[in-house]
Amino acid sequence: MHERTQQAIARLLFVLCCATPCMLVTLWIIVTGTGWYQHQVASSVKNEIQEQLGLEADFDDFKHPTPNRWIFSNLRLSHPETSALISTIRTAQWVNDSDETRMLLEQPEVESRQIAILWQSFHDQILCRPKKLGHPVTISVNDLTIHSGNNAVTLSEIDAWIANESFSSSASIQLQVADSLSHAPIVMQVQRDREANITSQTLNPSTTVTLSTNGTPLPCSAFNDFWPTLGSMGSSATFSGNLKWKDEPDGWTVDLGGSRFDDIELDRLFENQSHRLSGSATIQLERCLISPAQKKSDITGTLYAEQGLIGKDLLQSAGKNLNLHLLETDAWSQFSGDLPYDVLAISFNINGTQLQLEGLCRNVRGYENYPAGIAMVLNGYPLAQSSEKSMESLRLLSTIAPNHSVPVPLSQQTNWLTKVLIPPSRPLPAGTTTDPRIRSARVWQGGPIVEQP
Questions:
Q1: What pLDDT digit, counting tens, does each position of 332-352 carry?
Q2: Distance CA 449, CA 446 (A)
């Protein structure tokens, strides 16, 4: 081969194999370093997150060190319609492997009132869309803080696994409460079943959530805004035990058997009631199965409270409606206001429409010599004693109802009207009526003529 030909081939190979790749790499580095490219990639990632979770995403900065790894700084999730902030994550790492997706979330913070939106996003966008969940997902979370008003609860050492099978999707979560004396992890399982009905050959999907605290008290204040009933128990109330909640097309069912609520502040529980009751209480539930769709309620448990006050009107109402025998009524006169009590101990059994109560003060240490059925003690004197008669469970409502409440002939046939007819929130002045806001012009009979002076 001629020398000039060799030189030409060498120059061509240099341009194709060395100069051109170097120029392309240099061009790629320049383009990827521009703000335009960074903005395009960030917009694409935000759209992908919104497509996967149904939430708007924003972040201060991101890194893409390898083709399958993303790192986001100060990730923020918001409601797509209201733009309300739902959660902030200091650092989020996302790794996509061939057979697994791994995520690491550092110091996320969530508002308690937004937990329902997070749950809906997780349930509808992940569990209910099995085609999107192609391979398992592993999530590790460090120090999750749940804010609820002035209260905050930190959960640590959180590990979650999400997997999809032929007819079901499942998620398993383990966590611990920061600064808790118990080191046993709290375990939560979520199962989405899509098995077909044998008779109709149609899918009847259902969601089952099980929670086991394994002896670790879970602060109720973390979910005050998510479930207001928990907030009414006070900032120091805790839940421990088991919970099973199942949501089906025809209704939901909850089972709290074997669980308990401790350090309940009764004054917070009754702060919106016309009657007064205070003290620190514990509720132990042996059985607690509630299914509104099946019209089933099976609740058995005990209530213990101590060192509190009870209104005289509430005690009299309990004696009237709950078949309690009121004792030592002559001694009430020495107290101008509410009656202080030493201990309140009572068991309850609600089976459908029936309610059975039994005083348990004799089971409390130091009160073993009291007669059976004593439910409340004041300065060593029994105040109330239960009877063996069962009663309608709706009498419990009559006991705590205010004086201006309206008696309603309630039954299963008229229960739906309670969602339409609004009960009074305060008493109306006796003997007065309210004029209608709009009067018909058809009954107007005229009046004095108004003339300009």
A1: 777 888 888 999 999 999 998
A2: 9
Same structural domain, 258 and 239: no
Percent above pLDDT 90 for the chain: 28
Examine the domain organization and report whether 120 and 235 are in the same domain: yes
Has residue 434 got a pLDDT over 70?
no
Helix ranges (DSSP H) in 123-226:
none
Contacts of 61 (CB under 8 A, 6+ apart): 72, 73, 74
What is d(CA 405, CA 383) in angstroms, rounded to the nearest whole number?
26
* Residue (of 330, 333, 350, 332) closest to 341 by Cα position: 332
Using the predicted structure, report yes or no on whether residue 228 has a pLDDT greater than 60. yes
- C-alpha 249/C-alpha 202 separation (Å) is 12
CB 107 within 8 A of CB 146: no
Domain that holds residue 196: 55-244
Q: Based on the structure, what is the number of domains in the chain? A: 2
Residues 134 and 271 in one domain: no
Q: For the chain, give the percent of residues with pLDDT over 70.
A: 81
